[in-house]
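1st attempt posting a full record on here, be nice pls
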Amino acid sequence: MLEYFRQLWDDNSLSPHGICLLWRPDLIWTHVTADALIGLSYFSIPVALAYFVSRRSDIQFGWVFWAFAFFILACGTTHFFAIWTLWVPDYGIEALIKIVTAALSVFTAVMLWPLLPKALAIPSTGQLQSMNEELTRQISERNAALAELRAEKAERLKTEEMLRQAQKMEAVGQLTGGIAHDFNNLLTIVVGNLERLEKRFRDDPEAYRAIRGAMEGATRGAALTQKLLAFGRRQPFTTQQLDTNAVVENMAELIRRAVGERVTVELDLTPGLWPVEVDPSQLENTLLNLAVNARDAMPDGGTLTIRISNVVRPRMTDDDTRNGHSVLLTVSDTGSGMPPDVLGRAFEPFYTTKPVGQGSGLGLSQVYGFINQSDGHIDIDSEPGKGTSVHMYLPRAPTESQRAADTFAPFAASPLGQAG
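the predicted structure (as tokens):
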């Protein structure tokens, strides 16, 4: 083996390659130029591949790039050595370089063919773009579903909060109504005895004055119990069919005097308004209560608007026989409005944000009780700095045919009402 390499390096009996070209300058320098350009190109390609692989560590099959780099580097070396052997007959070294180049080329070729299926399995740019678009579409659908889920959750929480508020108001109403009813009975006894004492001590000025003072206190207590009974929906009402337009028009002058000159009162009435069946005095008290509240919310003046219209609101219960036909009575102001925490407690009895001595906290609770006892519905829209609107839905009064149907319904449903 050593002898083989010694002979391979022995160039004493060899002639340089240029002698085969008869040392013609045109042939010599054509070969030199071509091999130099090929060699330089072959040397630059491995540098580019090495730079690319080193900067892109995420590239799959990076070792193939390195194999190509060494193979092409060896090819470039053979071309530079071809220039060298034009003048120096080192054909043995050139043969060894070619052997190394051949080994690298065979290794690269052998390793490349099994790699082709895996390389072909890599998605193309078009496939990646299509997959990216599909993924974007799925993300958009998921985001839309999440937004819808959040909206449903918010709506459910809002409904649960409304239910809790309704249950709380119902419990407070039952408690308030029970206490007010019992207290009213006690006041009846007190007032009866005070009337007897008033007759007996009419000739005693000092005693009569004390009895009258006690009578006035009892009367104020009786008025307070009436408000509490209205909130607890236990106050007896005298209902009759009313034209809400006429009630508001008749109350307009009184409301203007109550709110003062700084507040402008505007009426927005609707011709052909449906009749309602409520207690007229309670409806008048409700309008006056809301007008006074609006005035207090507008100390620097503003606009109070009373708007009436026919509406068909969604049925609140399955037993709603009037199909949601209601008269919407809205009282709006341009006052200070209420923050959410105050708005949530607006109907609670004795809750007020007014200074001590300027409000009992029973105005809105009395309105709430009156509307609910009239089978209506009430809600409030308010925003700090933009005013408040109280919406009252009063059920449409039943027609004569509906009254007749309600009257004969028990008879028609009984066995005696069936034809024999």
